[in-house]
Amino acid sequence: MLSRLQHTSGVTSPFSFEMLKQITNNFSEEHIIGRGAYGVVYKGVLDNGKEIAVKKLKYMPPEHDSNKQFENECTNLMGVQHQNIVRLVGYCHETRREYVEHGGKYVWAEVDERVLCFEYLQGGSLDKHVSDEPCKLDWDMCYKIIKGVSEGLNHLHKDSIFHFDLKPGNILLDNNMMPKIDDFGLSRFFPSAETCTTATNFGTLGYIPPEHIIGHQISPKYDVFSLGVIIVIIMAGFRGYYEYKDTASFEFIKLVCEMWQKRVHATTWSHISQEVKTCIEIALRCIKHDREERPTISQVVDVLSRIDVEKLSLKCELRWEFMVVPLRLNSHLVRWERMIDRCMKVTRLSP
């Protein structure tokens, strides 16, 4: 781990535990901005006024290997820089001796403190915007989140980093609703894309693919399945995701498109209908039971990129139309002016 920390030392900073206590008022309740299975997140403000999110990892039983979790999250994030991945700004790992009460007596004990510090994102997490119903955000914002998460995940997979706990609660949003993938405690670095088997299951129920539930198998298609679930939940809500299992794919696609068509103006729908249909089709491919039938994340990004090209092409066509119409009008005006000028000349020459 030390070599990777040194290699990326310019990106993050080591913080003392005492300093982190100070900026969070001794990790007080009023500074808490989030809680998770592995730690509590506090808001802190550095001396330069910069706000950061301070994640203090909980003590876990030995079988959970807390040090391994800290090392995974720290080292995997240090080497990654992407607009759709939360940025690690600092870390702290200190062991100190404290005089504590144990069994009615005071004894010296070693306390292991592990803290990770991230950029502070004021938009909170995506799970605030999803429910049983389709996401209440407008389509452009939903598409921005879908595309951003896909691109962030693609960047991770290119670096052979697999998340294994992708869900709305682990997608943070900035002030402009730019999504950033968060919480790398379960992430793993795999130099090859081959399927591996783990001793136990990990992840969050509902986002875990069937091959991992049944056979503890992990591969890049694990994250692709989780992404598909997230897209369906954004577009159709939790209820829609669970009802999909009893609905034919073509019928579900039709239902989702109809739901979104009712939410937007007819003119807008003519421009976004293909986007909505393509995104829900991608999602259903991602959650295929057989992982061999799921696309890779790079294939997902390629399809979304084609949508962007088509959108840009449409905008260019519309702009051209707006430019051509005035030009046509101007040419008619020029011709009229010439005709009037000729008439005036003829009038002046007449006796």
Automatic annotation (TrEMBL):
Its EC number is 2.7.11.1. GO terms for molecular function: ATP binding; protein serine/threonine kinase activity. It catalyses: L-threonyl-[protein] + ATP = O-phospho-L-threonyl-[protein] + ADP + H(+); L-seryl-[protein] + ATP = O-phospho-L-seryl-[protein] + ADP + H(+). Residues 27-307 form the Protein kinase domain. It is an enzyme of class 2 (transferase). Coiled coil: none annotated. Keywords: ATP-binding, Kinase, Nucleotide-binding, Serine/threonine-protein kinase, Transferase. It holds the Pfam family Pkinase. The keyword ATP-binding applies. It comes from the Eukaryota. The keyword Kinase applies. ATP binds at K56. Belongs to the protein kinase superfamily. This is non-specific serine/threonine protein kinase. It comes from Triticum aestivum.
